[in-house]
Amino acid sequence: MSDAPEPARPRSAADSRRAGGRAPGGPRVVLIGPMGVGKSTVGALLAERLGTGYRDTDADIVAAEGREISDIFIEDGEPRFRELERAAVRAAVAEHPGVLALGGGAILDPGTRGLLSGLPVVYLSMDVEEAVRRVGLNTARPLLAVNPRRQWRELMEARRHLYTEAARVVVATDGRTPEEVAQAVLDALEWKDA
To answer: Which of 19, 30, 146, 152 is the 20 to 30 A CA-CA neighbour of 189?
Structure first.
C-alpha cells in the first residue's frame, strides 16, 4: 500500500461529466492524430487549462532509449519502434491521470485501440495541405523520408478510420491556432468550466 495520496475522484454526475467520464487512474484526455497535427503543443495547453500534467509517449520513448525516434527507425527498424511504442502507451495509460498525447502510428496496434476504449480520446485532424505546411517537405520524420506529400496521404488512408473509430470526438486543426484547438477540444468534450 502506497503512502501517496489518491487523486481526487469525481463525486457527482456533474463532476464526472466535467472530468470527461474518466476511469479511475486513466488519462483525463488522450490526443491522437497524424504527425505534425500539434498534439504536443495542444496537449501542453490543455494540461495547463485543466490544471493537470502532460505526457507524450514519443517523448517517453526518446527518454527511455536515449536516442531520437528517427534513429530507432534507422538502427532497429519500424517493428522494434512499434514494440517500444506499445509498451510506452500501455505504461502511460496505466500511470498518467492528465493529458496524454500518442504518437501518430500508435493506433495501428489493436491492443492500443483496446486500451483507449472508454477513455476521452480526441482525434486532432488536418488535411494534406495543412500537413505539408506544418511538417514541411524537408523533414526528419522517418515515415515521410521520400515524397512526403504522397506518403502522408497514404499514411492517412491507412489510419484515418482507426483514428475516427478510437476517438470520442474529432477536432479539426486546419487554420486554427493551438489555443483555438485547445478550446475546441474542451468545447467538444463539453468541459465548460476548464
So the answer is: 152
Q: Is 66 left (phi over 0), alpha (psi -120 to 50) or beta?
A: left
Query: CA–CA separation, 34 vs 155, rounded Å?
Result: 8
Distance (Å, whole) CA 28 – CA 186 = 11
Place of cell 491522437: 32
Residue 186: partners with Cβ closer than 8 Å, 6 or more residues away = 46, 49, 192, 194
Beta bridge partners of 29: 99
Maximum distance among all Cα pairs of the chain, rounded to whole angstroms: 53
Q: Write down the pLDDT at residue 133.
A: 62
Q: Is 3 strand, coil or helix?
A: coil
Measured CA distances, 158 to 4, 151, 163 (Å): 43, 11, 10
* Each residue's pLDDT tens digit, 26-75: 899 999 998 888 999 999 999 999 999 999 999 999 999 999 998 998 99
Q: HSE of 114 in the Cβ direction (CA atoms, 13 Å)?
A: 5
Residue labelled with grid coordinates 517523448: 59
Spatial separation of the C-alpha atoms in residues 146 and 148, rounded to whole Å: 6
Residues 6 or more apart in contact with residue 123 via CB below 8 angstroms: 32, 33, 163, 164, 166, 167, 169, 170, 171
Q: What DSSP element (H or E) covers 74?
A: helix 69-76
Give CA–CA dist 86/177, Å, rounded: 30
**Side chain identity at 60, as an amino acid letter?**
D
**Which amino acid makes up residue 25?**
G
